[in-house]
Write a structure and sequence with these properties.
The longest helix has 23 residues. It contains 11 helices and 4 strands, in the order βαβββαααααααααα. The chain folds into 2 domains: 64 residues, no CATH class; 163 residues, no CATH class. The radius of gyration is 18 Å and the shape is globular.
Length: 255
Amino acid sequence: MDVQVEGSGPVEPFFAARDLFEREATLDDPVTVRIVEDPDERTRVKHTADGHTLTISQQAATSAMARELALHEFAHMHHHERGHPSHTQSMEEVIFLALAGRTVERRKLTHCRQIANHMKDIYADDLWLSVAPAGKLVDFLESSVASALADQPSAPAWDRFGHEAARTSAASDPEITAVNAAFALGLVERHNLVEPDHRLYDLAHAAAADAPEIDFERFKGWFRSLSADPDESEYRKTLVDATREYAGGNGPAAD
């Protein structure tokens, strides 16, 4: 793997991530890591014919999760190169199939995109968790659920690696908070990362109790049991079902 680091910041986390990642997979296209000083710069990835560009703030590049962040993004790049359904499926098509003819709140459409990003993250995590410890990820998930329940606007964003998603507070949107908690629990159960008495269970169940209209167990089951190697049709159906379940809306849905 060809990884180049530009900007003022540490190179070690990105080269360490490269070395770990190559134990499981590789990237055909070169990767440029751009470290920028702006602390508000969201971690983002751009794919072009010339390769992949990961833009990351200096603050994130020097954080304790920098290596894990890079591993996660390398995994997304790998799935992009291989045309994994989770990384090629159009969300516009999913929304049409799930919700055509229905009236749906705009915020719920935004949340549906976050659910799709969670599914993409499941597949990225499947790849990198096979080569690195998961302790920091578990700590992040626990902190995020706890912060959302405490309704702290400054809580860590659920989109921990900067994809296009928005997390709102538990007070304004208990529904997406419950789905986020289902994602956290589904991910750790998928990889057997915690014991049944871990605090994350109590936090997730509290989030579920705050949103009784959300079928918490169903969402957790979707995240935990996503097919390891789905074809396009299978993945599309799962995402359509999850979108329809979350957004609901008034009127008939398309079949």
